[in-house]
């Protein structure tokens, strides 16, 4: 009987704590009307676009015509032309390249907008990679794209020692939302 009484007391205590916790959470969410309505803007973050290059598969002639055969974006299995990044004003984006064969270095040499206005009015920062990693580009958009997808090009070179390839181009899409 004593054990049953202790168990009931413990159960009542746990139940009281659970109800109090739920009440605290609902009160904190209702203090901010935007949060309650689901309109709170996300925290700014950095989006990473990592290009993986299989240097053994690059053809000697016209590599731009065969780019789908030796390049892919990290975590993406579809066509390079259908790869897209969606971000918010206030976010940053970093483009970087990685060679499957570590004796090569992939240098991101440019980001060029093929259609529409370039939303990166302040340009891009050149970042040096660590160790055997090549140059990267980082940008923070200064305006949105009005819910439109912009076609742009990532320009890169492949380097082995002092030898640098011709510039190779990939053209994915980007959209920058100004608000949620």
Automatic annotation (TrEMBL):
Asked whether the keyword Signal is assigned, the reply is: yes
Q: Which PROSITE patterns does the protein's record reference? A: PROKAR_LIPOPROTEIN (PS51257)
User: Which domain of life does the protein's organism represent?
Assistant: Bacteria
Which keywords describe this protein according to UniProt?
Signal
Signal peptide residues are 1-21
This chain belongs to the protein called Uncharacterized protein
* Organism the protein comes from: Robertkochia marina
